[in-house]
Amino acid sequence: MLLCRLREQVLRELGFRDIFKKVKDEENAKAISLFENVVQLNDAIEDEGKRLENLVRGIFAGNIFDLGSAQLAEVFSKDGMSFLASCQNLVPRPWVIDDLDTFKMKWNRKPWKKVIIFVDNSGADIILGIMPFARELLRRGSQVVLAANELPSINDVTCSELVEIISKLKDEQDQLVGVSTSNLLIANSGNDLPVIDLTRVSQELAYLASDADLVILEGMGRGIETNLYAQFKCDSLKIGMVKHPEVAQFLGGRLYDCVFKYNEVSS
After folding, report:
1. Where are the domains of the chain?
2. Per-residue CA distances from 217 to 16, 40, 146, 192, 248 (Å)
3. Which residues are in the Damage-control phosphatase ARMT1-like metal-binding domain (predicted)?
């Protein structure tokens, strides 16, 4: 946390405030053009469990677009990335932490009323990974709060960028491919780093989270490096791809392995 804070401070003092803005804009435009197709492919899966697993795989595939990882930044600069190919090429289950089967059981038995999702990167991550998942929650009757950074850091999506993205994804009826967005909220997390200290969120988010019954932390920085063992008063899900060799070694997994850590609180 301290190293991230120092890095951002030095970059901003030297005038580097949003160094990946052009790349983020380009990737957002590409992902927006693919959104409807990705959603329709998910909707075509009739089995609830298989559809949920496909949505989860989409989150992992989207999370690959991360310019904070040296290896992935190099791959991205050479070849770009295909979202659908990334879905198919994920490391096979069981993942290094794999509570997906438990989560699947709760998915049908436990309709969460209010879900807070701490989002991660721009482009395919937020648009093709998180948004189809959030749309599915909306369709099932949950209120969904997307919590995004206040200020730019690496290629993380900011709150103001997220507002613009969602306005482009919605149709004239304020729907996401046939699903109402009346229960979708966007919140400023108060954060300006690729990791997060949950004791320092914005007042807005603290208020919105007071009656949440599921908190999701997505991405390696928020979900693994800083909050993997964080305990909540409500159900929690930490989900992200392992993109640094040191983190893979710490977890006893492989590079590009997946973490899906679900904790249920007893009522």
Report:
1. 2-263
2. 27, 25, 10, 15, 18
3. 2-259
217 touches 227 (CB < 8 A)? yes
Task: Judge whether residue 81 has pLDDT over 60.
Answer: no
Percent with pLDDT over 70 in the chain = 94
**CA atoms within a 13 Å half-sphere pointing along the CA-CB vector of 211:** 5
Query: What is the per-residue pLDDT for 126?
Result: 97
Identify the weakest region by mean pLDDT among 74-78, 164-168, 243-247: 74-78
H-state helical runs in 185-265 = 203-208, 245-251
One-letter amino acid for residue 38 of the chain: V
Q: Are 148 and 159 in contact (CB under 8 A)?
A: yes
Measured CA to CA, the distance from residue 136 to residue 133 in angstroms comes to 5
Comparison of pLDDT for 266 and 38, the residue scoring more: 38
Q: Which residue has the higher pLDDT, 148 or 26?
A: 148
Quick one: fold of 2-263? Rossmann fold (3.40.50)
The 8-class DSSP code of residue 126 comes to I
Please name the residue that has the structure tokens 């998915």.
107
The token pair at 70 is 């040296």
Residue type, 212: A
